[in-house]
Amino acid sequence: MKVYVLDTSAIINYLNRYYAPGLQYYTTNSVLSEIKSTLSQLRLEYSLSKGELRIHDPSPEILKEVLENAKRTGDFFKLSSTDIEVVALAFELKKYGHDVVIVTDDYAIMNLSLRLKIPFKPALMSPISEYREVTLMCPVCKYKAKLSLNENTHIIPTCPRCGTELKLIIRKRRRLNS
Ligand SMILES: [Zn+2]
User: Can you identify the CATH homologous superfamily of domain 2-121?
Assistant: First the structure.
């Protein structure tokens, strides 16, 4: 069965408009807690009571694996912990053999999904046209650093040689068809 994993914008913009019977929708608890509008909440309660929408949080191991990949692409610096959990949920469902699609309008989520080979579809916008991976570089002395996989802070570190704040630069880009 096809499974759609929805981020916060997709819950609000997609589920209302495009709900299709026979599809299973999933999201995380942290997404649910971000839904503030009463109308969206009512729609959610209905979907939950019907079993159309299921809530599941990814395991810590999967979350860690997705975080490490998000550092390779640089999306780690653009995504909230809720966003990361959404991608991790999709990654986990995919590992369990589900036919998963992430519904999102967030370009960083799309980029990370490409790296993890998770299919995605935009809720309202057009999809990204280029896949990117980044690295850290010192703008002064050109020192290059890999993003630390152990550090979970969103603060970009300073250069160990000269103390300047490192910059994210694109080290790999790939044009996408259509
Ligand atoms: Zn430097």
Answer: 5'-nuclease (3.40.50.1010)
